[in-house]
Amino acid sequence: MVIKKNKCNLPDLFSCTICVIGLGYVGLPLAIEFSRVKKCLKTSKKLNRKIIGFDLNKKRVEELISGIDSTEESDEESKKEFKSITFINDKNADINADIFIISVPTPIDHENNPDLSFLKNATELVANFIIKRDKITSPIFIIESTVYPGTTEEICVPIIENITGLKYNKDFFCGYSPERINPGDKNHNLTSIVKVTSGSNSETASWINDFYGSIIKAGTFKSKSIRIAEAAKVFENTQRDINIALVNELAKICKTINIDTLDVLNAAESKWNFLSFRPGLVGGHCISVDPYYLTYVAKKNGYTTDIVLAGRNLNDGMSSWVIKEILKEATKKKIKISNSKILVLGLTFKENCKDIRNSKAIDLIKILNKENNIPYIYDPFIKDTNKLKNFDFKFLNRSPLLHKDKYDIVIIATAHDEFKKINSNIWSDILNENYIIYDLKGIIPRCLNPLRI
Ligand SMILES: NC(=O)c1ccc[n+]([C@@H]2O[C@H](COP(=O)([O-])OP(=O)(O)OC[C@H]3O[C@@H](n4cnc5c(N)ncnc54)[C@H](O)[C@@H]3O)[C@@H](O)[C@H]2O)c1
After folding, report:
1. Taking residues 121-141, what's their average pLDDT?
2. Residues of 128-141 as b/e, b for ≥16 C-beta within 10 angstroms?
3. Is the pLDDT of residue 64 over 50?
4. Angle at the Cα of 439 (from 435 to 443), degrees rounded to 5?
5. Which residue from 193, 204, 145 is spatially nearest to 13, judged by alpha carbons?
6. pTM of the predicted model over 0.90
7. What is the torsion angle, in degrees rounded to the nearest 10, for the CA atoms of residue 146, residue 148, residue 152 and residue 158?
8. Are residue 211 and residue 344 in the same domain, yes or no?
9. What is the domain extent for residue 164?
10. Fewer CB atoms inside 10 Å of the end CB: C or N, the chain?
């Protein structure tokens, strides 16, 4: 890494102060990694950085100060780093940082349009921190939240200019570096995934690329512009959504011709260039949200997308389709849904993670409620049921396999490792003689005749 002459008056790469705003699934690991790495991975030069973690949620900050990460994504090693990070909750604090990184939520509203309220609010906070700074170098503002192309420069930069009176690309600089972490997945974490970077001019882009390159083992990809980096992020997730929609459609076709979808996929996967995807529910706050950011920017610029929303709609309808399949089977087996004992295993939006935001397993339960059934639910990752609102359920604190109660219908909605380890004899212990198992994740042995997508 060659450190070039610094025309933009950017801060010192090796001894800067970094403030991460929004300490959730994305922001906290980032703050931890900046704190943990003590030598630049590219130059081996000593890093003497100060890390500040800011979050508006007082409880979150108090917990982090006392060493608790409620997302349970931090291991013991990472938690040791908490002591080296200055956690702040006060929006009037003097945050004398060089780099401000925003990692706040970017959800959609009830009409599936981007909800940038958290991002705008966080940008206003950054502007106010910048005004109070006591530094001679220019501040750098980086967004990590997922946004549609154009957001950083069209929405956030004007907010900073208006509040601070500073000029973009003269007095302050900015960048976009999307996060690609996969919570619950210990193999793909912040530092093992190539990080896309970008900056508001070539010097800033190189600075930001070196900045992330100093901590990311897998390396970085310097994108040609902020807009390209923004578009790449939403497109990655849109591509995944569409591919899953395609196999979900295949699953529906397979049902009509009475063949097993996974058998078809296994056969097709023998071709060298076949892409492997599995059918299933697509929830969470990335894959099921980001395509709307892409269609929003397309529409804003006069283009109506052809396939993005088709895939989205198909994936969104999978929970109702699954319940319809169960109802058909229940009629065949003379099981009355309203009277039956139903167990839903796994409620989080993905395996081995405690995040329930936009979980489609919850949609299954809501639909069962409409069929006058209150199912039992068990998820080893959920300890606190306070966030489970607007639907009826009976929550099991311990594995149903320990209770040995029998159920008429068992739905495997999320493939937590705990469920994958269960063998077929044990599954039989919790099934009534006349039963239905709907296995959304393909983990139940075929000898139990599970229904599958
Ligand atoms: N979670 C993932 O797997 C993942 C992966 C890639 C990208 N992303 C994207 O990263 C962004 C953050 O996602 P997340 O999952 O970390 O969200 P999160 O909800 O886990 O965390 C966001 C944090 O920001 C805080 N916050 C909200 N508004 C704030 C403000 N104005 N100032 C300071 N703090 C504020 C919240 O209190 C919360 O602690 C989103 O755009 C998301 O789409 C998430």
Report:
1. 97
2. ebbeebeeeebbbb
3. yes
4. 120
5. 204
6. yes
7. -130
8. no
9. 17-224
10. N
Say if residue 55 is in the same domain as residue 197: yes
Nearest C-alpha neighbor of 42 from the set 259, 207, 242, 270: 207
Q: How many angstroms separate the alpha carbon of residue 26 from the centre of ligand 1? A: 6
Cβ of 118 less than 6 Å from ligand 1: yes
CB distance 98 to ligand 1 below 6 Å: no
Specify the ligand 1 atom closest to the Cα of 27: 16
Instruction: Say yes or no: 334 and 218 in one domain.
Output: no
205: domain CATH number is 3.40.50.720
Please give the backbone phi and psi of residue 314, each rounded to the nearest 5 degrees, phi first. Answer: -60, -45
Which residue matches tokens 């569409």? 242
In terms of Cβ atoms closer than 10 Å to its own Cβ (0-12, 13-18, 19+), residue 109 is exposed
Does residue 278 contact residue 247 with C-beta atoms inside 8 Å?
Answer: yes
Q: How confident is the model at residue 5 (pLDDT cuts 50, 70, 90)?
A: low
Question: Residue 210: which H helix or E strand, with range?
Answer: helix 202-213
Helix (H, G, I), strand (E, B) or coil at 344: strand
Single-letter amino acid code for the residue at 358: N
Compute the distance between CA of residue 435 and CA of residue 17 in angstroms, rounded to an integer.
60
Q: Is 25 in the pocket of ligand 1 (CB under 6 A)?
A: yes
Evaluate whether residue 69 is within a structural domain: yes
Q: What is the mean pLDDT of residues 292-318?
A: 96
> How many folded domains does the chain comprise?
2
* Residue 452: pLDDT band with limits 50, 70, 90: confident
Q: Are 425 and 322 in contact, with CB atoms under 8 Å apart?
A: no
